[in-house]
Amino acid sequence: MIKIKNSLMKNYLSTLIILAIGIVMSVLSVSIGLETSTLYLLEKIIIAVILAVSLNLVVGFLGELSLGHAGFMCVGAYLGGKLASVIEPAVGNNPINLILSMLLGGVFAAVFGLIIGLPALRLKGDYLAIVTLGFGEIVKSIFQNTSNESFGGPLGLDTPRFDKNTLFIYAFIVLVLTLLVIINLMNSKHGRAITSIRDNEIAARATGINVTKYKLLTFVVSSFFAGVAGVLYSFSNYKVQSSKFGYNYSIEILVMVVLGGIGSINGSIIAATLITYINTKFATILTGNLAVLQNLLYAIILILIVIYGNSPALVGFKQKYNLKKLISKFQKSADPSIIKQDKANWDNIPTKIPMDEMLSVDFSGDNQQSVLGNKDNGGKE
User: What are the residues whose beta carbons fall under 8 Å from the beta carbon of 308, sequence distance 6 or more?
Assistant: First the structure.
């Protein structure tokens, strides 16, 4: 039971922390109010975390390289945003509109993931990356060349902006649901089948695992949440433009996954939060002529993070100075001289001799001398 509890805490700790942060930020927003820039930053971070965690499902747990994640986000943003603008006069800009749009955008992105995954997942490595990259560029070009009446064309699609004081609350709920689905999936027998394909596809086939089925499942689930993130993006902005979902954005999502650690959900959450925060702050601070330094400084920070995480020369430094050692310094070590009380219920242990009688038996002085005499005489009287 202790191992099960520790495993549950380890798997769901990040979800509980995010839920706690969402509750605290919601209370602060309702009670004292938050700045518009803070609310917008929270929206961007949540969207980035959903994208990074969903892509980690394919890259980290399945072991396939996909460079078209922004394309699935683009499908969700345009189709979900279009539905939101169409039904807004009837239902209004409320949670019902948001939920319906997220479902439609996620389902359409999942359908595109299934269509692309059927032929693409027969490929491996660089070939799969090229196909998914091509899909993302094709989707971007299609929406860019639509008419103004359908999806806005080059100018983009006008979408209803959700209330900025409450959108991040719904986004937090979506993020928690996303984490629960992915964590439960990876802790199930299906998740073990997916990771076995990553470790050794030939061995997985030999044990009877339907490799094609699980590859498509992973690709579809990942695409669905990318589409949901795209709908949140459309509700977070007044306009959706296809230029946002280009090759560079797919690479940025992949960087979040790689920096956080391949196959690490907690790492993806931290890396997505850090990268989004850095980009947002650079865009705010570096304005005017200094704007050209934004990408340069961002690249330098990423290079330093990669060097710190992979350099053999820093292994000793990381072992000496890490978070666990810092926490252990503030924790009081247990005194080995203190014997903890045994909480076992000894009265319920079945024995032939009552436990109280057995523990109360004492030797008299004559018996002790007799026993000692036997030992001195080699056991002979």
Answer: 314, 318
Alpha-carbon distance values, 363 to 351, 352, 366, 367 (Å)? 22, 21, 8, 6
Kind and range of the H or E run holding 227: helix 211-236
Looking at the chain, the whole-number percentage of residues with pLDDT higher than 90 is 19
Ramachandran angles phi, psi of 239, nearest 5°? -150, 140
Query: How sure is the predictor about 307, in pLDDT bands with cuts at 50, 70 and 90?
Result: confident
DSSP string, 141-176: HHHHTS-TTTT-GGG-EE-PPPPHHHHHHHHHHHHH
Q: How far apart are CA 203 and CA 226, in angstroms?
A: 30
- All domains of the chain in start order, with CATH: 19-311 (1.10.3470), 347-376 (no CATH)
| pTM of the predicted model as reported, rounded to 2 decimal places | 0.78
CA separation for the pair 88, 106 (Å, rounded)? 19
